[in-house]
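Worked Example 4.2. Read the sequence first, then its structure tokens.
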Amino acid sequence: MILYIDTSNAEIMTVALGEDGKAVAKRSLKAKYKQAEKLLPAIDMLLKKSIPRTTFRTRKVVRGKVHRTLDLKGIVVVNGPGPFTALRIGVATANALGYCFKIPVVGIKSTEFNNLDEMIKEGEKRIKKVENKRSKHSIGSAWSAKQNIVEPEYGQEPNITIKK
């Protein structure tokens, strides 16, 4: 399963889960100027409500509680073009989750797809390429988080004004 994050639209943000080239679950919400407050809760809700318990794998038992993690293969994030803050929030969240779960993160431009299904298909191809590169390195090798960072691409120069 792959997590998809799209904050490239200033008005609406979309998070989705995809598998075998199709969307398994999707959540779109209005988030104008509120991406920072709404992105992680939207991802959490998507995972909790849309995924059957059988998709989770048990990690370990700590103090009598079973801790489960979703079997994510990677994260695909739209990294441009789009609004500065919205893109930065989406990309930073994707990079942080990828680092935390030790899964690949890939960026995709919003101009490369017309709908969510196309994004899922292209995202899966890119995740497989990154997985192939990672598998060439031995488990104890120096495959680092730096090799797996996505950077936002804003599509234009910053528009900074000077006080009059």
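Now turn to a second chain, presented in exactly the same format:
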Amino acid sequence: MAATAGMSWADRAAAQAFDGRALIDGERRAALAGETFDKHSPIDGRLLGPVARGREADVSAAVRAARHAFADGRWAGQAPAARKKVLQRFAEKVLAARDELALLDTLDMGKPIQYALSVDVAATARTLAWYGEAIDKVYDEIAPTAASSLAMITREPMGVVGVIVPWNYPLIMAAWKLGPALATGNSVVLKPSEKSPFSALRLAELALEAGLPPGVLNVVPGFGHEAGEALALHMDVDAIGFTGSTRTGRRMLEYAGRSNLKRVYNELGGKSAFVVFDDVEDIDRAARTLAGSMFFNQGESCNAPSRALVHERVADRLVEIVAAEAPSYAPGDPLDPSTVMGALVDETQLRTVMGYIEAGNSEGARCVAGGRRTRTETGGFYVEPTVFDQVDNGMKIAREEIFGPVLAIVRFKTEAEAIALANNSSYGLQASVWSGHLSRAHRVARALRAGTVHVNQYDEDDITVPFGGYKQSGNGRDKSLHALDKYTELKTTWLRIDPA
């Protein structure tokens, strides 16, 4: 694949311009205090450019713009069919700018360019188009009351929605929130991660080009403890859609309690169990699927199958295959179209991942693949795909979300033990069951406390299917028609019908 005719991705990266200013009320703006921070690429440490350091005053300006846009009905007052057309044009603009958007995310957070294009940009456009298409297909309700009354149940936009998204899938995570929030008529203030701000800012420009009225989508870059906290505490924000760590998700709930009791929808972390029984029909496919899913996006995925629970009869074979597969995911240059694993997002994340690898070794797990930092000569942040065998479910690497390419393999003897191990986690985002017996697959899937349970596969995906978790993996659901519930209020309107 080529960036443009005659230009490599490296050439395109060298020529790429970066605009880190906020976008408020349809205009690019510097932070009101004039402050910026420098954004460097994790690929090789290159300086990408300055980014506006949004603070409370900038967030307030964005919220005012969003509230004004909502109140005058420039978007919420449009018919669903009209909003559909704008969102569909928005999706078309995303596809037309696919190369630039993919490059921004690759340079910002280090993912391979081939996946930024084929997965992230493609899914973003599909999400926006799908919610645009869906919104004039969703009907309100009439309650089955007595003949003397008419009770109408209608969905109305909430008003101003604050959206706070992480750095691992900057475009997709934004689209999962923006699609249903905009489709239902809300105005939005988006705070991207300070580690990956550029694609969100460009996305908002494309929305304006597609016909979204100024003020309906505003983007304020900045740090989480400054701009993010200000957005979550703002008294004129009606809801927060957040994706990020469980630690920060707790703060979102605290901020809601300290402010206006705004709705908070958290999509949080995971420690997903990948359960392989001894009656699995194809242990080789299970092992290869495990490796591919675990090491995709450098392991920086909340739904990564980072805990493999494997029956002792087939564990040696699975470990052998996964360890042999690991080197094929060795990190490479993210701008090379053949690269399948890129850089970790920054030095802080690198230190975190290496700390977990050290913990695995010190707690007695057996490292059978990887375990080292690599490509240090580039100035970037790369870690080998790492596999630990002989892990106890109580070890740190089996309990805590690592957010890096580190797999922990735990062995079990019985079905009951496998279920207990899988559910013995504070998280409940995803899981997978591998078995050749349909009854066992159903039985175990029902017993697992997770928002999604895959059977004999992992991470197959469609926008029509809800995504979210149990327990400390969050609440509410992204994707599917269920996501519309997060950004609408239900209103009941009673009419008395007098007898003739």
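Notes for the reader: Residues 113-134 form the longest helix (22 residues). The longest strand covers residues 149-157.
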